[in-house]
Amino acid sequence: MNVLADEDIPRLVVDCLRAEGHSVLTASEADLRGASDRAVFDAAQERGLALLTRDVEFGDLRQFPLGAHGGIILLRMVSSHTVWEAAERLVAALKALSGHEMRGCLVVVGPRKLRVRSPG
User: Fold this and answer.
1) One-character DSSP codes across the chain
2) What is the CA radius of gyration of the chain?
3) Which residue has the higher pLDDT, 50 or 100?
4) Which residues neighbour 69 within 8 Å (Cβ) at sequence distance 6 or greater?
5) Cβ–Cβ < 8 Å for 111, 77
6) I need a surface site. Which of 32, 53, 95, 97 has the fewest CB within 10 A?
7) CB neighbours of 25 closer than 8 A, spacing ≥ 6?
């Protein structure tokens, strides 16, 4: 999968995804440090990438409607889980979704649950 990782995604998560063969561009590598949510979203769309973030505002379907983007992956981390556990959960979720069309979808990867909202 090809993703733009928002600056709130821990480096360990990025490294784990890359180790699994995913193409990950970080916000800092794309000169987006401190950029607005809209600027990060637009950059992902311009590059044809799904957006990986922990920012729950990207789950707002009024602002980011299903079908109108390259995919949004919302990583929900809770304080009782380590970054390593979150990275493992994300890698497992992406494996489970391999072959699934992510374009336009909102994917929420939680500590115990994976939810996919597809357009249409």
Assistant:
1) -EEEE-TTS-HHHHHHHHHTT-EEEETTTTT-TT--HHHHHHHHHHHT-EEEE--GGGG-TTTS-TTSSS-EEEE---TTS-HHHHHHHHHHHHHHTTTS--TT-EEEE-SS-EEEE---
2) 13
3) 50
4) 41, 44, 45, 51, 103, 104
5) yes
6) 95
7) 3, 4, 5, 47, 49
Show contacts of 11-17: CB within 8 Å, 24+ apart: 12/83, 12/84, 12/87, 13/75, 13/83, 13/86, 13/87, 13/90, 16/87, 16/88, 16/90, 16/91, 17/52, 17/87, 17/90, 17/91, 17/94
pLDDT digits (tens, 9 = 90+) for 69-86: 999 999 998 777 789 999
- What's the CATH class of domain 2-117? alpha beta
Which neighbouring-strand residues pair with 95?
A: none
Domain ranges of the chain: 2-117
